[in-house]
Amino acid sequence: MSERQFVTDEPPPRPSLDEGTSAHYSDATYYDRAYRRLKADLNFYLQTALEIGGPVLELGCGTGRVTFPIASAGIDIVGVDLSEEMLDTAEDKLEVLSPDVRERVTLLHEDVRSVDLDRKFRLIISPFNVLQHLYTRADVEKCLDVVKAHLMPRAGRFVFDVLQPDIRGLGRNPARKYKLGQVYHPLGDKRYFYQESFDYDPVMQVQYITMYFEDPDDPEGGSFETPLCHRQFFPAELEALLTYNGLR
Question: What is the model's pTM?
Answer without folding.
Answer: 0.92
